[in-house]
Design goal:
213 residues; 28% strand; two-stranded antiparallel sheet; 10 strands; globular
Length: 213
């Protein structure tokens, strides 16, 4: 029952946002498309590095097979996929014997390893709510609500979310920092509070909560 109520509430929130949203300019549309493309990929590829054996392409969200017979771990392709979105300064690289493993900030921080893997996932990953971007010159900020909400006060809803900070480079938009905020009342895999991919600037620090929500 709670799942139905949550779904109805989310529908009302989305309708309200759509009704009140101002038209986006060209730069905002560009950043919005970038973020939608980022979240179009399944964690099985983005986090676990599993790609289609025949096409060598990443899997779209909730389209990864639950068996690895049709997929293969491809570290080179995973690094290339991550570099399409994240600045190299926040990509973690680990030297292995025969390859380099790349890791990016978690797109779905509320999910544990068993939910990130298609072979152990027991339900589809809900598509996130991507807010309209704010763009100033060559910088952008985008809030992405990844899951869940709780009522702190009547009429107020708070969500587990990622706040992405982007810069426009010669090769296009790239994410230069990610602030992850998790509420203590959400069903989650790590403590409440926040963490960031790299040190927050004074302006970014304004987005960080002063205490657990």
């Amino acid at each position: 029952m709670s799942g139905i109520v949550n779904a109805l509430f989310m529908g009302l929130v989305l309708n309200a946002l759509a009704a009140n949203a101002a038209p986006l300019n060209a730069e905002q549309l560009e950043v919005q498309a970038f973020m939608k493309r980022l979240y179009s990929y399944d964690p099985e590829s983005f986090d676990n590095g599993q790609f289609d054996v025949k096409t060598r392409k990443p899997y779209l969200l909730n389209k990864a097979p639950d068996s690895h017979t049709a997929s293969k771990y491809m570290p080179k392709e995973k690094c290339e996929l991550i570099e399409e979105f994240f600045d190299r300064s926040i990509i973690t690289r680990t030297e292995k014997k025969t390859f380099v493993a790349c890791y990016a900030p978690n797109l779905f921080p509320h999910l544990g390893p068993e939910q990130l893997s298609a072979s152990t996932r027991y339900e589809d990953i809900a598509r996130p709510l991507i807010e309209p971007p704010s763009v100033t010159n060559s910088s952008a900020r985008v809030v992405v609500y990844v899951r869940g909400f709780k009522n702190k006060e009547p009429g107020q809803a708070l969500y587990d979310r990622n706040i992405f900070y982007l810069s426009k480079t010669e090769i296009g938009w790239r994410i230069t920092n990610v602030l992850t905020i998790l509420g203590k009342a959400s069903f989650q895999t790590r403590p409440c509070g926040y963490e960031s991919a790299t040190k927050l600037t004074p302006e970014q620090l304004k987005d960080a909560p002063s205490e657990c929500e």
